[in-house]
Sequence to fold (278 residues):
Amino acid sequence: MEQVTTKRASKNGQPEGRIAPEPKIIREPEIYIVGRQTMDPGAVDRFLDDQGLTWETDTEVGGEQLVEAGGRICYMSFGKGRKTNREYIQNLVSMKHGSVLEHATWDFIITGVSRSFSHELVRHRAGWGYSQLSQRYVDEATANFVEPEVIARDERMHALWLKAVRAAHQAYLDLVEGLMEAMPNIENKTERRKRVREAARSVLPNATETMIFCSANARALRHFIELRGAEGAEAEIRRVALKLLRLMQQEAPTLFGDYEIVRLENGAEVARTAWAKV
Fold:
């Protein structure tokens, strides 16, 4: 969406600032897996040779390989016991030996989510890392907005929500323009824009779209999916949790295959597993 430069007329007929663009409404989040671990087979082979051991694993997923290797270190069970990676990890999960799952880490970019969502997401600290779009440095003149499904399906509520979003976005543009003129003493343009945007953003709604880069290990992801994929979770974060679960079941089926997605009588989808709190 291009930045709008149209001026609206004031009462005396003179131009009075930019008109906010028609909001782009988002109703579905996107998750991109942008990073995943790999195991260094050469280094592992050197370790095995030094210890007089042999070991082969049947998975090609780096995270699953590392979890198995970490678990086998605990008991020096390389070449012993359960033969397949699936059997080994399923035993770890059933025994709730969850600390070993912390060795597997993935990186994600999440878009199409609201500031309400990110406020809830960043409460997950252990095993997570975040880098979020900054409203101090990024111009929100062409911001997108995330509409809750319960509002979107009601025509009257949608109209009320859209009116509020338009008004808040217009206020942001007016504040940016007015504050830029009110702070001539800050000569550094980058610093002035930062100071202006950090003040003007105060009127933007929680519905404003954000983007966030996340890193999380498998244990932290399971905890997130269980809490936020449950029936009592907030609707937007539950949608993200279930989308993340579906992705991770393709990405690392042995680590996330014990979950199922169940549709309740009210139509809502939730995540369930027999092995909670691993």
Notes: Residues 1-5, 11-15 have pLDDT under 50 and may be disordered. The first strand starts at residue 7 and ends at 9. The chain has ten helices and ten strands.
